[in-house]
Amino acid sequence: xxxxxxxxxxxxxxxxxxxxxxxxxxxxxxxxxxxxxxxxxxxxxxxxxxxxxxxxxxxxxxxxxxxxxxxxxxxxxxxxxxxxxxxxxxxxxxxxxxxxxxxxxxxxxxxxxxxxxxxxxxxxxxxxxxxxxxxxxxxxxxxxxxxxxxxxxxxxxxxxxxxxxxxxxxxxxxxxxxxxxxxxxxxxxxxxxxxxxxxxxxxxxxxxxxxxxxxxxxxxxxxxxxxxxxxxxxxxxxxxxxxxxxxxxxxxxxxxxxxxxxxxxxxxxxxxxxxxxxxxxxxxxxxxxxxxxxxxxxxxxxxxxxxxxxxxxxxxxxxxxxxxxxxxxxxxxxxxxxxxxxxxxxxxxxxxxxxxxxxxxxxxxxxxxxxxxxxxxxxxxxxxxxxxxxxxxxxxxxxxxxxxxxxxxxxxxxxxx
Length: 417
Description:
By secondary structure, this protein is an alpha/beta fold.
């Protein structure tokens, strides 16, 4: 039997969002008789606590030189906390912050030989955009093979050029993409690309295993129909479409029907965003007179007790989302899904079977689809059941992790280990 392989997982995420949850499942189901994992993170937070819960306390490397975001404000208001912290600096201070973050990152890269040699790291696995850049440079400096896990589609010309250049490096041996939509970015190095969708733990995300909290907290009646969404509250997630769709739905309901239909948005705007998009959406709700219809719960470290109480799940992203994890989480909870026909959503949702895929980015069609499911409980249930079966067959986290592990061992020439 071959020796134990040591892998340095570089993970930019410190919270339990999509990238963090995906990495958690890899760590949970990884065969540690074959692979010994080390995890590099920017700071202690929910993600590092999860790693410790898996018995990896001694394998977590916290280094603040690896920032969660290169735009992180070194001069942020330290008296603020959590989701209320905002980047409150002048243009000059912002520039200085970016400069210092880059210097810290360069320091981490230049001192990486001590990190890798001390732990005898065989391969570097990168989860997140900044992680991919950092990992590629560390791999280049130390002559270690690098694996990228691509969970996004670059939107700016600068980042597209950066990813294109780094992906051509010989040390970048494998590019694991969460969808065919994400893989299209690397058509010029297609021999390196493998498409492996995100996975979900169907036991953790199961209607029968979780007790709902949403309905009790907001005193919804048993007959209340909850149309919900979960995610980071940022412009590209398209929550304006959902709020406009809520207005369209309200117009079509009688006054008594309006009281039993609620729209719930779970999430917040990350602290490193300069503008608080959540505040903007709250103002929009007031403008449309939807205060009694739309509810913002804020950030929840565990969204399952909220998903459990949804009847319909909507993902209103107005950009090609690579493969939103929350979609398969909602399907695991037997929820019908409504979203736009773009990005990796089309690889998760079967239009007309597990939900509705909309051709246009508009609130009118979204409102029509929501109304269809509000008025047809049998179809809601059938779509939800089909979604659960699809997740069990294609997106089980343990199966996905085995595929990823095989790619790691293959890069090291030890797939049969």
